[in-house]
């Protein structure tokens, strides 16, 4: 008879990963075993407030009841068909998602990087079929300090050497211009340009928010130049900034929106390219696809996510609690915080490098029961689930103050 394996401690589990798991991440030393709402619990039963929310994949918190129920119901009926057949969940998902974003058609995929790859392919195809760019000459203009994922094509236009070095040769056809610089964009766009691809807010770069008018300017410029405006809303979208999409802050409707992360409700990977009909209809059978994209489980969870967003409650919470977050961070400027940028429930907080790196501050916060993650250097990113309460937010801010005052 085999006995159940002895439960292993956090330290043992971390040590056990070392020889068998690729070292492509440097996680905080916490081993999460269960979670509910904005709280997670580690193997030893210690509780932490999750102020990262899976890089915005958990906008509705851990295990939101409506999402868990939708997943359970679907698990009991049908999980995968591949796109060789139709499934009875997909039409509704596409209808609702298109309506939510104000666009027409949906290409369902799985991960964020896949949505970006798919968006690039669609933009190039559109350039050849509709715009009339000569074969293999299409260009896509992107912004410096972007983060769009990790595939070979996507890192081809990254400006982060850690993401690129050692992974060439790179895919040609991209032009990089400074973010938040309309004049540079204007100069880079020409008759070969298929699209301008940008994040409405640059998350990995440290939650960099462009000047007012930039997104509207990109919209105007791309329309005038006859190329597509592709907004990567994989991290900024689906309620995070207080609107369904971050581009809504400037009343902009792009030609194509890339979604992921929270679209899967923290349960399954679900991503999508959502676009105007004229754009997405360039794809024909056999030209693009994914075995798992649009599977019935993903479609059921994705539809439940869209239904939560249709209520407007999460966007409202992000906007209202975003004020609490901003005011709390303003009060910390000069007390260990040198500056911050925030929109809705999303902030990049620059801590005084004399007090430690972003990593060190994140570790100190972890020991005090708050989970965050650093981005670059001394910047810490805050992105709690949109279900967080004002009291929980204030607790996180108090802990940050304590950690930065070296009392921790
Ligand atoms: C803006 C943006 N685009 C794309 C991605 C890639 O998503 P995934 O990690 O699901 O491939 C991310 C992930 O952080 C992101 O923030």
Automatic annotation (TrEMBL):
Database matches in Pfam families: Aminotran_3
Pathway: Amino-acid biosynthesis; L-proline biosynthesis; L-glutamate 5-semialdehyde from L-ornithine: step 1/1
Keyword Transferase: yes
Documented EC number(s): 2.6.1.13
Entry cofactors: pyridoxal 5'-phosphate
UniProt superkingdom: Bacteria
PROSITE patterns membership: AA_TRANSFER_CLASS_3
Keyword vocabulary terms for this entry: Aminotransferase, Pyridoxal phosphate, Transferase
PANTHER family: AMINOTRANSFERASE CLASS III (PTHR11986), ORNITHINE AMINOTRANSFERASE, MITOCHONDRIAL (PTHR11986:SF18)
Protein name per the record: ornithine aminotransferase
The species this protein was found in: Streptomyces prasinosporus
């Amino acid at each position: 008879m085999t006995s159940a394996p002895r439960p292993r401690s956090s330290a043992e589990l971390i040590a056990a990963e070392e020889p068998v798991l690729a070292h492509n991440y440097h996680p905080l030393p916490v081993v999460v075993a269960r979670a509910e709402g904005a709280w997670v619990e580690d193997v030893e039963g210690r509780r932490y407030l999750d102020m990262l929310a899976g890089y915005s994949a958990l906008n509705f918190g851990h295990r939101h009841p409506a999402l868990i129920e939708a997943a359970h119901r679907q698990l009991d009926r049908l999980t995968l068909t591949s796109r060789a057949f139709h499934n009875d969940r997909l039409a509704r998902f596409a209808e609702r998602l298109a309506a939510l974003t104000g666009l027409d058609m949906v290409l369902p995929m799985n991960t964020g990087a896949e949505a970006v790859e798919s968006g690039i392919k669609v933009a190039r195809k559109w350039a050849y079929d509709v715009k009339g760019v000569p074969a293999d000459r299409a260009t896509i203009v992107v912004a410096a300090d972007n983060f769009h994922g990790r595939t070979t094509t996507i890192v081809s236009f990254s400006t982060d050497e850690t993401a690129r070095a050692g992974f060439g040769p790179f895919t040609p056809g991209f032009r990089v211009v400074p973010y938040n610089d309309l004049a540079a964009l204007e100069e880079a766009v020409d008759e070969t340009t298929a699209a301008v691809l940008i994040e409405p807010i640059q998350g990995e770069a440290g939650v960099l928010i462009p000047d007012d008018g930039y997104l509207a300017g990109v919209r105007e410029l791309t329309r005038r130049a006859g190329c597509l405006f592709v907004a990567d809303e994989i991290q900024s979208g689906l309620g995070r900034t207080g609107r369904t999409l971050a581009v809504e802050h400037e009343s902009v409707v792009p030609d194509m929106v890339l979604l992921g992360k929270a679209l899967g409700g923290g349960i399954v990977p679900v991503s999508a390219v959502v676009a105007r009909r004229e754009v997405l209809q360039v794809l024909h059978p056999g030209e693009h696809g994914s075995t798992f994209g649009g599977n019935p489980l993903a479609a059921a969870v994705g539809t439940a996510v869209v239904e939560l967003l249709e209520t407007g409650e999460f966007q409202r919470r992000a906007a209202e609690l975003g004020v609490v977050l901003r005011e709390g961070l303003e009060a910390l400027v000069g007390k260990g915080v040198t500056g911050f940028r925030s929109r809705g429930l999303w902030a990049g907080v620059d801590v005084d490098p004399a007090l430690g790196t972003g990593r060190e501050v994140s570790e100190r916060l972890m020991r005090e029961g708050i989970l965050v993650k650093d981005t670059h250097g001394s910047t810490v990113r805050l992105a709690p689930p949109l279900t967080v309460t004002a009291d929980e937010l204030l607790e996180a801010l108090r802990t940050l103050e304590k950690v930065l005052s070296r009392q921790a």
